Amino acid sequence: MKEKLWEALKEVLDPEYPVSVVDLGLVRGVDYEDSRARVFLTFTSLGCPCTEIIKEDIRSRLLKVEGVETVEIEEVFEPWSAEDISPRGRMILLQLGVT
């Protein structure tokens, strides 16, 4: 089930760039138990204006996964850095002119 959750999260894009929250390194972990998906999430900054949009997009997408009835999102305060971006995410950002 965790694999399905990760795949679904790859479809959730950052509101500012067409890069998934997984490729941006925002998702720090997922868990599943008794029809409940849990996502551990950090943000690029504490003042990120898109936190609620991202959380709602994650919740909406995961509720479409068969077997998921509830979604809990736990914000973790692990500092994010550009090193957290996956190679795929870096390629997309470079194509957009973001360096």
From TrEMBL:
One of the Pfam families matching this protein, by short name: FeS_assembly_P
InterPro entries named among the record's database cross-references: Fe-S_Maturation_MIP18, FSCA_dom_sf, MIP18-like
Domain MIP18 family-like span(s) in chain numbering: 2-73
Gene3D superfamilies: Fe-S cluster assembly (FSCA)
The protein, known as: Benzoyl-CoA oxygenase
Native source species: Thermus filiformis
Organism classification: Bacteria, Thermotogati, Deinococcota, Deinococci, Thermales
